[in-house]
Amino acid sequence: MYTRNLYIEIPVLIILLITAVSLSAVFFYKGELFYGFVLLLPVLIIVVLLFYVINHTNRKIAFFFDSVCNEDLSLVFPEVINGKALQELNRSLNRTNKLYAKMREESETNELFYKSLINHAKTGLMAVNNEGRIMVINPAMESLFEYFILSEISDFSQIDPGIPDIFNRLEPGKPEILSIIVDHKLQQLLINKAILSLKNNPVSIFSVENIKNELDNKEMESWIRIIRVLNHEIANAVTPISSMSTTIRELFHKDGQLYIDGITEEIISDTADALRNIDEHAQGLMRFVSSYRELTHLPKPEYRHIQLTSFLRDEINTLNNKLEKKDIEVSLQIDPEELLLLADPGLIQRVFSNIILNAIQSMENCTLKRINISAGTDLHNRTFVKIADTGEGIRADHLEQVFVPFFSTKEEGSGIGLSLCRQIMQLHNGDISIVSEPGKGTEVSLLF
Prior knowledge:
Layout: H1 2-30, H2 33-69, H3 84-120, E1 124-128, E2 134-137, H4 139-144, H5 163-169, E3 176-182, E4 185-198, E5 201-210, H6 212-251, E6 253-254, E7 257-258, H7 265-296, E8 304-307, H8 308-318, H9 320-325, E9 329-334, E10 340-343, H10 345-362, E11 370-377, E12 383-389, H11 396-399, H12 417-427, E13 431-437, E14 441-447
Parallel strand pairs: 9-11
Antiparallel strand pairs: 1-2, 1-5, 3-4, 4-5, 6-7, 8-10, 11-12, 12-14, 13-14
Helix pairs in contact: 1-2, 1-3, 2-3, 6-7, 10-12
């Protein structure tokens, strides 16, 4: 509105100026000097008005932008003044000022909200620019490191020389656990990283959690479960041995004394049977010990690039006799087909073999017998393999214990298969998870 009025006033003033100058020139040309000089007065007035309108408007707009630059939002222009154009200009500037003030208030409110959210988070948070300077750090992060003065990533070296290296080499989506001693206390920190783009500049967001208590609790739970299983397995083996040893001793003793004269062929036969049973239980105990040794003495992975499609096909061919005997159909979907996996072939073969054998056994009494194997890469460019079956599934209370060493729902199962798989995946900095529903099947996911 103001611009439209200004566009009317300025042309009108220019037209009046031209008219006055033209008339003054005519009078001077005719020799009527008096009238010529008289007309110069309105020419002067019009020129002054024209400069006033333009300069006053420019000064007001410049003053407004100066106040905005100086973040002075208290500026208010009078709206009841002479001149419709100036009234509209003042109203426009006031509206713009109010709009800017509202936007700034909303921005400050959002900033305060997110700042409070970050400051109240129990997880340590830190934003670092591409040069290694810390842009934002919350109190939880500072408390984890006993409030050392931290302005750059390199400042963490005063706590532990290895911390800056971990921050610098950490990849998004691949968390690491750091064990350090701060103020004479052991802390086990889970460090994760994400990368954002701020004004076309990469910013690294780090989250740090002290998971020592959680790890201690999980370790204690694991030990309790293992001790229960060990107690069960050892008791199952030792109790019969003890019972039969007592029986044999009673056969050859009478009234606490060794009694040989009354030994018959029946006693000798019973003794031989008892010794055979003792040997069988002892062998079972030795197999149990061998399984435990296998679980605790895995070799360090020797990494090689594996062509996943051919590797899985070879594994399926190896188990083909079992699959055909059970009339089980297997489908293989690898995307892309030439997908490579960096892993130890020998160790990973044991993982695939254990999972597929479990799938075969779970479909013993099922009508639909099918194993679906799929592989690819996720959003973080990590390789995954999923092995799903249409078997009986796993009960919810058993699902929580499938990775516990020596836990098995099968009579002849050793209970170390999935525990072994999990340990091998951990050696590869990977993860294994299971989703199952009784009567519908089980899906095992491997993430490398």
